[in-house]
Design a protein that fits this description.
Helix content: 25-40%
Number of domains: 2
Oligomer: single chain
Radius of gyration: 22 Å
CATH architecture of the largest domain: 3-Layer(aba) Sandwich
CATH class of the largest domain: Alpha Beta
Order of helices and strands: HHEHEHEEHEHEEEEEEH
CATH topology of the largest domain: Rossmann fold
Largest sheet: 5 strands, parallel
């Protein structure tokens, strides 16, 4: 889709830092008063569970974004007595250090900040965690936006961006979150992709059991094997494995399952 890329004046390196801080402080005031991002807390909680991460690295944080209230909601959702404490790291290419320090103090050190400049396209390797962006992705032209996503992929980190979504997109995101909660994407050696249990590991075998409605992941041991769980695999959900078996492309094997 074509779009017009307007210039964000306060993103320019020549823009006076004191004025930039005023702009981000004003945006922060709106975040605090409107609490517009509170509804995404359950979605974010589920995404972090799927990614098995308890650390968030927020990119383009401005003066702190919605994190003071979001942290409180995430802590409520995470009260099961077993999970480690959440860690939130604020970052920005032009960090508003005064605002960051205020957010850290108000959160009783539940929110931290990276004092140096952080380029969203080249996040420092020591900043590990689930990456988030709030109302900032539109600042970047398409080539830079792709570089941001690629940097997260190269680092092996999940990334989520929250802007102004159409109602249809919100409904789709909720369905997607429900389907993928506690699940993990995987790929087989021959290039098939699928969605399996969150504890799937490299080396698990993809098997199709006769008379079962879905494929399964199997963890093969020396004497016995463990059924990891059911999986969705594109191209194997409508009996294709039986056609492959008849054609001699796959073989029948037997395992003792615990």
């Amino acid at each position: 889709m074509r779009r017009v890329q307007f210039i964000e004046i306060h993103d320019q390196p020549w823009f006076p830092s004191i004025l930039r801080d005023y702009v981000t402080d004003a945006l922060q005031f709106g975040f605090s008063r409107l609490n517009a991002y509170a509804p995404i807390a359950p979605l974010l909680h589920g995404a972090m569970d799927s990614a098995r991460s308890r650390t968030i690295v927020d990119i383009c944080s401005g003066a702190g974004g919605p994190w003071f209230e979001l942290l409180r909601k995430l802590q409520i959702l995470s009260r099961d007595g077993e999970r480690p404490a959440l860690q939130i790291w604020l970052t920005d290419k032009y960090p508003n250090l005064g605002a960051f320090q205020g957010v850290r103090a108000a959160s009783e050190n539940g929110i931290h900040f990276y004092p140096g400049s952080v380029d969203a396209m080249a996040v420092p390797v020591d900043l590990r965690g689930f990456r988030t962006m709030f109302t900032s992705f539109h600042h970047f032209p398409p080539e830079d936006a792709r570089a941001i996503l690629q940097n997260a992929v190269d680092a092996g980190e999940s990334i989520a961006e929250k802007g102004n979504l159409a109602p249809e997109a919100v409904r789709y995101a909720k369905v997607l979150e429900r389907i993928t909660r506690r699940r993990r994407f995987f790929a087989t050696r021959n290039g098939q992709i699928g969605l399996g249990p969150s504890d799937a590991r490299v080396g698990d075998r993809l098997v199709v059991v006769f008379y079962c409605p879905t494929p399964y992941l199997l963890r093969v041991g020396e004497t016995t094997s463990q059924m990891v769980g059911e999986a969705y695999v594109h191209g194997l959900m409508y009996g294709e494995a039986l056609d492959m078996f008849d054609a001699g492309q796959v073989e029948e094997m037997k395992w003792i399952v615990e």
